[in-house]
Specification:
It is a single chain. The chain is built from 14 helices and 23 strands. With about 575 residues, it is of the alpha+beta class. It is rod-shaped. α6 runs antiparallel to α8. β20 and β21 form a beta hairpin. The chain folds into 3 domains: about 220 residues, Immunoglobulin-like; about 240 residues, no CATH class; about 55 residues, no CATH class. This is DUF2207 domain-containing protein. Keywords: Membrane, Transmembrane, Transmembrane helix.
Amino acid sequence: MLAKWGATAAAVFVTATGFLGSPPPPPSPGPAEPSPTTALPGGVAVDVKLRLERDGRLTVTEKVVVPEGKQVTRRVPLRQAVGDDLERVYSVDTRSFEGPDGGISAGPDTLAAEMGPGTSTLKYTVDGVAADVGEGQEARWQVTGGWDTDIDTVTISFVSPTPPRSVTCLAGAVGSTTGCDVSQITDGHIVRAQEIGLKAGHRLDLAVGMEPGTVPATARFEKTFSLAGAFALTPATGAGLGGLTLFLVGGVALLWWARGRDTRALASDVGPVTVLVTDAGGRVGFASPDGVLPGQVGTVVDEHVDVVDVAATVVDLAVRNYLWIEEVPGPSPDWRIVRRNPPDEHLRAYERAVYEALLPSIGPGGRDHVRVSELGGAGLDLTAVRDHLYRDVVASRWFQHRPDNERSRWWWIGLGVGLAGVVLTVVLTLTTHLALLGLAVLVGGSALVIGSRWMPARTRRGSALIEQVRGLREYLRSATPDTVPVADREMVFSRSLPYAVVLGEADHWLQTFAVLDPGADGTPGLYWYGGADDGDLRRFAQRFPAFLAALDGALAEADHLRSLRAST
């Protein structure tokens, strides 16, 4: 298999360079048998004898004559380019050196020799010279080159187990196609070549065509690094990109399935839901859909615990008589939040956490009241509120998993996959031609990071609640005091207000009910809010948004929650 592949690669090289693929030129005119020529005074002469053994290895004997007072070196590359991203690889073994001064060495990439004045003889064997080409075989080797000085004369002889069929000899700079001075087949079985005057750094390449099967094909070819080759589209990389496409399509389909219920709920036309209920005594009250509380509404809608969710919970706790809110007279507007009733079993864990964050009951920070202006510098810790509220929406079966954990989990997974993709891309770029696979992993990780925000999936119950919340918003937009008995208007107005706050309808709700008489229930003013003029709801409608803005700002300084309002 390696031999066949090597032959194919060699054929590519032949076609590209015209070195081996075209018919050999006719033998150059010259002496029938070129022989070593004595170097001119101060010149270097090289005589090389090559024998192709039956096992495919090439035995080389070099005789180098160096004039007095001169030291020469040569370096022959053992990895030689045969294309943009392909190298032919040779190996050298069984080396010996005879001469007055110098030596020979070979590594994985280079054959090196150094010779002093006099006559030196170098012997070594080369593996990887024979390759199957077309309907025959070819032996190729850079016979000499890499000299640090000009060479006066180079003579070459080559013998093989079968009579050679052709010879091509190239001399000059690496990559040139200039023929040698002499290259011919003599006596029917010996190849001889000669070059007069080889400049320093130039080389002499010899390629001999032979009968098929003359020796085992030992040529080796290896891919080399190139940026274009590293990112080439191959069957393997194509399969990887196809797998990534299926992964992304599958992810989109999964998100579509998980989000489809929400999309339909948000796209449909929804009228006001029934939130007003009449008890056995004929009193009209407010009942939220699915029993959802104001703080839960915002979390279910946008999957985050926001500042407005906590602010709406504070108002709700006041409406339910756990807290009292009163205006504080002074040059700048301020409000006081006062403990009215202690938290009990009717409060959810997150509501209790809000209560304790505002009015700690134990410890050195324990207090019965606090000004809104003091909350910003009080070092509020709302992490417990956030954690309890996320757990609460899961316990209420509106989500399968905590939305924050779900987002975080997929974000970290995406980041890890993306970083692995970066490392894999670099490694594959430097070592293989499969870098597109690493790039595919990187793209997949990036897609997970971007898509992590949409990973939290509501349950069917959560999707149904979204539709009901839209109906609740329509109720807040369309309800009027006339739809509620006079004696129950203050209670309905107050119980609905926290939902108007979290859904961004507070201003409209306040203006709509500004005409009601808070004393119609037998007590002056709102039962949960104290102001300079308890009987004037128009003034309350003007002042209360300022309270919400001040409360939002104080809670936002805790830096644990987003400062956004929910929208559906």
